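All the exercises in this workshop are built on plain-text protein records. Instead of coordinates, the fold is spelled out as a row of discrete tokens. Once this layout is familiar, the rest of the handout is easier to follow. The record below serves as our worked example for the rest of this section.
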Amino acid sequence: MTTSDINLEKSLNIKQKNVNRQTGLSPILHHPKQQADPLIPHTFKECGLHAWLIETLKKVSIKKPTAIQATCIGPILEGQNCIGSAKTGSGKTMAFTLPIIQILSQDPYGVFALILTPTRELALQISDQLAIIGTSINLKHTTIIGGVDMITQALILVKRPHIVIATPGRLADHIRSSGQETINAFKRVRFLVLDEADRLLTPNFSKDMQECIRILPKAENRQTLLFTATITDAIRKLQTQSSESGKKPLFLYNVIKSSVTIPSSLIQTYIFIPSHVKETYLYRIFNTQEYKEKSTIVFTNRTRTAELLCRMFCILELKVTALHSEMPQKKRIQSLERFKAEASKILIATDVASRGLDIPFVKLIINYDVPKDPNDYIHRVGRTARAEKSGESITFVSQRDILLIQAIEKHISTRMEKNSYISDFKVTQELNTVSSAKIEAEISMTNFGKLRENNKRKHGDFNE
């Protein structure tokens, strides 16, 4: 183990040391520095993209690079490793997929790139974007995620698609169980991408990340790209590590120059309420003139809460759908598509919906439960006010949430405003109606959770 490796392990959480070393960032950091603004390209041509790829972008009305695309595409094309940070809705996905596709077109083989994401929904969204911009080169890509038959996935991996988008848990399952042929498919990977890197570089993903990275080429023989909306301590420490000679340099770009990336057009409010009437306050919001026509995502901390609220509001005849990890994969996709098509105005979800999902028309975020990590709050509220559009967040605060709210406000350097649109009097009038619906919903949830266990046995689905 080199001195650089030892220093890195000391600086990071002990549960993360192997992951961060294996990503390749520990031995390749070379004096990270910000590009000066005058050097930022203003067109895709100036970024170094070829004419055929620029033409493909024009066909889908993408004519000008965003800040993170303009700054990161060039260095990636030049062979540099990259940490890219920008607020949600800033075009981070295209910042790494465009240069990867251009380089792939010059020497197409599989598996050329591995993209790891923390959630199935984000993996599917990246897949959708690749389907659009990869048509000109007959790009072959696949998603390796939970909820899908493992044998079917293994057969696809053996055929070696150009790009694999995967959740670490499911890919690790394949590495452990699908045999040497699957492992061999990743021996020539040119690019490793960690999308939503702040979450992937946490202890929860540590074991599976190690399993995924160990089968890849050594760090010096591939490019490593990290993209995130939040600069965490783990990523910040990676930036400051000393370098080893002879390795690929690291390019660092942080659009905001700060670890906090709350959209400037977001109005952040709170409602202080007793915890036992939260459901009724939520119902009142959905029936308040100010909010009832707005597309809304409600975030909960537990899957059971999300499912209960969804069933309860269906009983109350609201157009609502749910998204959480207890749902079968097919139903998760259907729920998300239903919300995107605005067939349902309300999506009730756990944090699987807080990362990377690009739904431009969302106008309201409700934190039904206060997140325990301030960074999760940033990702949740980042689902609205995207691309400089307006948006609002409402956070339900009970007595036990005070310290959590104070931690969030300190982290984002902003005080939330008290929401003034909700009538306490009307809430009291609706208590009985909502309570009756809640009881009916709770009765219907007797078998909740058993379906997930059945799916695990059927698909070997023990991970996201």
Notes: The radius of gyration is 23 Å. Confidence is low (pLDDT under 50) at residues 1-17, 25-36, 458-464. The first strand starts at residue 81 and ends at 85.
